[in-house]
Structures are given as structure tokens and as C-alpha cells.
Amino acid sequence: MCILVHRSPTPAHPWNAQLRVITIPAGLSCASELIAVRAVLAELGIPQPDDEAVCWCGAPVEAYRVPAQRHTSEGACVAS
Ligand SMILES: [Zn+2]
Which residue, 43, 75, 45, 9, is CA-closest to 64? Predict the structure, then answer.
């Protein structure tokens, strides 16, 4: 089962190991969300490629599977 991303107005714990859920603050920009998610993934010891957030299995974390042509477009991330 892959890592999921939840957005919460009041994030208590950035990482829930039982549910494999990363919780980030709601209302961040797309770029800030990606930074937040990558930071948690890096804390978990998962190497992160440029411009992407990946699960430990190597799959992109679902909310951040951004098509290449949209990399420069703010707010182009896919809401889960
Ligand atoms: Zn996975």
C-alpha cells in the first residue's frame, strides 16, 4: 500500500506510520505542498528525485503526479 497525502487545517502529526498517511497543512500552494511532502518523505529515508514526491516503492505519491508540461504552472497539482 502506497503513501497517501491528507490535507488538514490542524495537522497534528506529519506522518502516521500505521495508516501510511502524510498530513500537511491545508491551504498551501502547490509548490509548498510538494516541499512539505518531500520533506516528510526524506525524513522517512526515501530518496526524492527532482520535482517529484515518490513512495518507498518508487511510485509517485498520487497527489503529485504532475505531467511534465505543467511543472512551471503554479497550482497544477492534482487534488486527491
Ligand atoms: Zn508505494
Answer: 75
Distance 42 CA to ligand 1 centre (A): 14
Cα of 4 from ligand 1 centre, angstroms: 9
Domain limits, the chain: 4-70
**pLDDT tens for each residue of 9-66:** 998 899 999 999 999 999 998 889 999 999 999 999 999 998 889 999 999 886 654 4
- Between the CA of 28 and the centroid of ligand 1 the distance, in Å, is 24
On whether the pTM is more than 0.90, the answer is no
The alpha carbon of 71 and the centre of ligand 1 are apart by a number of angstroms equal to 22
Contacts of 76 (CB under 8 A, 6+ apart): 30, 66, 70
* Pairwise CA distance, residues 73 & 15, whole Å: 28
